[in-house]
Amino acid sequence: PPPPHTPPRAPPLGPHPPPPLPAGRVVLGRPPPRPPPRPPARRAEGACSTRVSRSSLTRVTAYVRPPILRQVFHDADGVPFEYGRRWDHLDGPPEDTYSVDSHPERFAPLAGVADALVRHLAATYAVTVEDVDLRGVDLASHTAVGPAHPVLAGVRNVGPDAVRAVRVTPASDDAAALALVVTDYPGVVVRAGVLHEDTFPSCGCDACDDTAAGAAEALEDLVLGVAAGRFSEAVRRALPGRHEWWVAHRLDEPDGGYSAGEGRTRLARGVGQQARRRLATLPGGLWQPWPAAD
Q1: What is the tens place of the pLDDT at every residue in 173-209?
Q2: How many CA atoms lie within 13 A of 7 on its CB side?
Q3: Which CA distances in Å does 261 have to 3, 44, 49, 51, 258?
Q4: In this structure, is the dihedral angle defined by the CA atoms of residues 258, 259, 263 and 266, taken in order, positive or negative?
Q5: Which of 6, 111, 119, 209 is 20 to 30 A distant from 66 in Cα terms?
Q6: Is 236 strand, coil or helix?
Q7: Could you tell me which of 224, 226, 149, 203 has the C-alpha nearest to residue 181?
Q8: Residue 131 in contact with residue 208, Cβ under 8 Å?
Q9: How far apart are CA 29 and CA 129, in angstroms?
Q10: Which of these, 199, 221, 219, lies nearest to 31 by C-alpha position?
Q11: Strands 178-183 and 162-170
């Protein structure tokens, strides 16, 4: 593959413009093995993981992740610790660590990762990029069908902590568009295709023990997998006569494996039927690869 280079800058995603990207990890071929995905967390419709194929990267600009520095924290007794393997010596996390977010600031690097992904997509594919600073937008009345801003159209999970959003639309009707919303939690919400949404991190509580690097890898997997054309969706009604639907997604891996998730979601009137008609025009609900930039 060609050597990595810094592509043209797209508008920054984070609350403040990031510095120029230094050399980081180049995603080439299969990354190191990841542990089996956890069951879908309450803020995500399903677990997501995939890989970036070497064959696809030989035709596009290499993506470079911004460096994520080592983070050391201290518990109530002043003992230093790092997230990721905190409970390995126990049978499981202590009960009092569930639903406790002691250090959400460890996920601050995700805004820079999202920004790097957008710059990569803008340099590699034929796309339209729209971005908006949400800090001056009234989000209280936002809904997916009545968005607070056009860039947020279709995004269901938009809370008062959303600070910036970007929509990346490929120049092909059969390729899935992406919307990324940066929050001051800090984290990133991604909408892909017609209905799938995922949140990074999926959960930031002390019991889950998630790291910024792990959440960044999951975010990259989804975004790069969508652009590579390995993402599919399906929707089916949960109960006749009601607005609840089963929304499913799947990310295929180059080695023949896949990851998938399904969640029960309440949708506005007509949204489920419209999504089902749209997905019926795709082979097996599979979105196509994004067209390359000229």
Answers
A1: 999 999 999 999 999 999 999 999 999 999 999 999 9
A2: 21
A3: 35, 9, 10, 16, 10
A4: negative
A5: 209
A6: strand
A7: 149
A8: no
A9: 27
A10: 221
A11: antiparallel
CA distance 121 to 219: 14
* Residues sharing a CB contact under 8 Å with residue 207, sequence separation 6 or more, in sequence order: 87, 93, 94, 97, 98, 99, 100
Q: Which two tokens stand for residue 215?
A: 């959440």
Q: Which residue has the tokens 């803008």?
A: 122
Residue 154, sorted as left (phi over 0), alpha (psi -120 to 50) or beta, turns out to be left
Contact indicator for 238, 247 with CB cutoff of 8 Å? no
Burial class (CB in 10 A: 0-12, 13-18, 19+), 256: exposed
86-135: per-residue pLDDT in tens?
999 999 999 999 999 999 999 999 999 999 999 999 999 999 999 999 99
Query: Can you give the length of the chain in residues?
Result: 294
Cα 269 from Cα 173, distance rounded (Å): 24
Residue with tokens 């990074």: 200
Closest CA to 128 of 64, 165, 178, 189: 178
For residue 263, the number of C-alpha atoms closer than 13 Å in the C-beta half-sphere is 19
* 134 within 8 A of 140, measured Cβ to Cβ: no
CA–CA dist 1, 64 (Å, integer): 13
Residues 6+ positions from 215 with CB-CB distance below 8 Å: 107, 110, 187, 200, 201, 202
d(CA 267, CA 13): 28
Beta bridge partners of 267: none
